[in-house]
Amino acid sequence: MNQRLFFKYAKALNNFIPVQNIQVFNHEIMLVVEANKIKPVLFFLRDNTNCQYKILSAISGADYPEQNKRFEIIYELLSIRYNSRLRIKIYVNELTSVESSALVYSASNWWEREIWDLFGVFFTDHPDLRRILTDYGFEGFPLRKDFPLSGYVEVRYDERQKRVMCEPLEFAQEFRTFDFTSPWNETSKVES
User: Fold this and answer.
1) What is the mean pLDDT of each run of 10 residues along the chain (192 residues)?
2) 24: CB partners within 8 A, 6+ apart
3) In degrees rounded to 5, what are phi and psi of residue 28?
4) CA 132 to the chain's CA centroid
5) Is the pTM of this model over 0.90?
6) I want to staple 131 with a disulfide (CB 3.0 to 4.6 A). Which of 33, 56, 117, 162 is the partner?
């Protein structure tokens, strides 16, 4: 299918779902949708006979701190019947929550947990929204770059107490040697 037909198909989608922006690049359609309308849009794209995007291949996030709506969340859909891919983008800020798509696509469960854990974007009505990649008691969100930079915590399982222990970690400085001289910069004396 050529680029012109893809764009025509994308414009036809605009008659059925609320789209803010449409782009076609490399035979892939990218739609920008309002964050509060993501769930009905996903239902339509999955269940409509002309779309049939039955597979959610990924949900990813990006952070643009200089923008008002700093978080970009991208849903990547695949229609096997029509052999086409579709990307849907939404933009949210730190305080705006996104409706979970776990009821539409069960694969989104893990992806939404990952975005919550790393970016702090909250998904309402998610069945199990908890951290999966950071340590217990970690404050902040790593991909926002606002986590604490001082202090270290060690998480380990104590066999005697039969529980997970969270303890401060200490580094002994006396075992470290810092020699910043380079042997290539030294001049050697040549005896005659």
Assistant:
1) 59 74 80 92 89 94 91 95 91 94 93 93 91 79 68 78 81 55 56 47
2) 3, 6, 7, 10, 30
3) -130, 135
4) 13
5) no
6) 117
